[in-house]
Design brief:
Pectate Lyase C-like, mainly beta, 8-stranded parallel beta sheet, 6 helices, 10-stranded parallel beta sheet, 2 domains, about 35% strand, Immunoglobulin-like
Length: about 500
């Protein structure tokens, strides 16, 4: 829990006074030093479930605090499950108590009124150290995700079991241990993804699905083309896709049980479905060993770790997305990129939250909108929240946004000595996109970029996330430590 000392409190009050004056002076004729209105201060914006938080509302008249006025309080909205104000009124400047409810990650909005002036304060309940089936989604996903529709529970430990239950719908699926969706086709982590590291199972797959005997032979013969040619690998790529793709049905939650477990080589397809939750999963290497050639752009992959296509009410939380294989070169010397996106969204996908996740060691990280025409008829229809995520050593698309409302709150963007890709862009607002990027940390990475879309660094008339849901913004000084401590798979246990 965060507490302000006396000096910090004084500074905080002065800042609040300035901010309140900026927003509440409409229609007033006083000078700035004659501010009339309400200023709310508190010892914390986040508390633990069922704890009490102390706050006060001070009424200012002609620039001075007026302790004679009475301030009225009420809980305007509550997703914590039973927040209670210990007092409904108090003298201006007097502290009152609010007891929050039991729901971790929930929010309480307290409205205050005095002398015709109004203001409000939002308090958040700290995330739980446990993942519960009953947890509530946050951000845009919180507007529709309904865990009560997932009426069955099952634990799986193999790729075939995961695929079997994911496509049924109505299940909470607990993933136990580690699963290799490639069934041994991929080489060991840290290997170069080319013919030199091909496994026996890869060579057997090549022999069964092509005219060649080994992966090395397939690469040398298939990729020896000129830079101006377009060459597809559809048949063999689709054969591999059948092995690794996990089709997720409506009303499905997939939650990893083990802190050290992972799903490697798989591609989750969330297509034409709603009400999907993916939590606590370490996801690695959605590799396309058979990329297609694009004129002037080398060889490019087609599979994403998570692909959301016309999905609705999707919550991805406390997951780690990463690449572990090194890139090789094609026979003609061009780029040989066997990775596509980590988490991509397209078509009429909406009400998605990606929270407390780590994205690392990847180039084309997150694409929202597959082209300038994807969503151009209704850019506000695709609504995405990105909360408390850590983007480490990512080259671009963090995210790349087209024709969407996107709320990027308290994310960390950084790189370290393990960087493979140079940072080309962090947040990239493209055609028709409206991005509200609040209190994010940018380390040694590229700055946000507007190229047809817009980025604001606070809510405004174009996009105010608070008109859709409640949230609390971490202070700038706390963002990096908070996200480092909480983001990624295995940071919480599962109950």
């Amino acid at each position: 829990m965060e507490f302000f000392d006396e000096e910090v409190m004084k500074v905080f009050k002065r800042i609040c006074l300035v901010l309140a004056a900026a927003f509440l002076m409409a229609g007033c004729k006083q000078e700035e030093d004659e501010f009339n209105g309400l200023v709310i201060s508190s010892n914390s914006s986040f508390v633990e479930a069922e704890e009490e938080v102390t706050f006060c509302a001070t009424f200012y008249k002609d620039g001075s605090a007026d302790s004679n006025e009475v301030v009225n309080f009420c809980v305007e909205s509550d997703s914590t499950g039973g927040a209670v104000l210990k007092s409904e009124s108090a003298k201006s400047g007097e502290y009152v108590l609010l007891k929050v409810g039991t729901v971790a990650g929930g929010f309480v909005k307290v409205a205050v009124e005095c002398n015709g002036y109004s203001a409000y304060k939002i308090f958040g309940v700290n995330p739980s150290e446990e993942i519960l089936v009953s947890d509530k989604a946050i951000g845009f996903a919180g507007l529709g995700v309904d865990m009560s529709k997932m009426v069955n529970m099952v634990t799986v430990s193999t790729g075939s079991e995961l695929k079997q239950y994911a496509k049924r719908g109505g299940y909470v699926i607990f993933v136990e241990g580690s699963i290799d969706m490639s069934e041994g086709i991929l080489p060991a982590e840290g290997s170069v993804m080319d013919g030199s590291s091909a496994t026996d199972k890869m060579n057997s797959f090549i022999a069964s699905n092509s005219e060649y005997s080994t992966y090395d032979e397939w690469i040398k013969n298939t990729t020896n083309v000129s830079a101006g040619d377009n060459t597809g690998t559809t048949s063999i790529s689709n054969a591999y896709k059948k092995i690794i793709q996990i089709a997720v049905a409506n009303n499905t939650a997939i939650i990893a049980l083990d802190r050290g477990g992972y799903v490697r080589g798989g591609s989750f397809s969330v297509k034409d479905v709603s009400n999907v939750v993916i939590r606590n999963l370490s996801l690695k290497d959605a590799v396309d060993p058979f990329p297609h050639h694009e004129s002037g752009d080398g060889w490019n992959a087609q599979h994403d770790l998570v692909s959301i296509d016309n999905g609705k009410n999707i919550w991805i939380d406390h997951c780690t997305f990463e690449d572990t294989l090194n890139l090789g070169k094609a026979a003609n010397g061009e780029k040989w990129q066997v990775y596509d996106g980590l988490c991509d969204m397209k078509s009429t996908t909406t009400n998605v939250t990606v929270s407390n996740c780590v994205f690392k060691n990847h180039d084309k990280t997150m694409l929202i909108g597959s082209s300038d025409k994807d969503g151009e008829n209704d850019p506000a229809a695709r609504k995405i929240s990105l909360f408390y995520n850590y983007w480490l050593n990512c080259g671009q698309r963090c995210p790349f946004v087209r024709n969407s409302l996107c709320h990027v709150l308290n994310n960390v963007y950084d790189s370290d000595s393990n960087r493979i890709y140079n940072s080309q862009t962090s947040i990239n607002a493209r055609a028709g996109s409206v991005v509200c990027a609040e209190n994010n940390y940018f380390g040694t990475v590229a700055s946000p970029n507007e190229a047809g879309g817009s980025i604001s660094y606070s809510p405004n008339s174009n996009f105010n996330p608070e008109s859709y849901y409640l949230y609390v913004t971490l202070e700038n000084k706390n963002v990096k430590s908070w996200v480092n401590a909480n983001a990624g798979a295995g940071k919480v246990c599962v109950q």
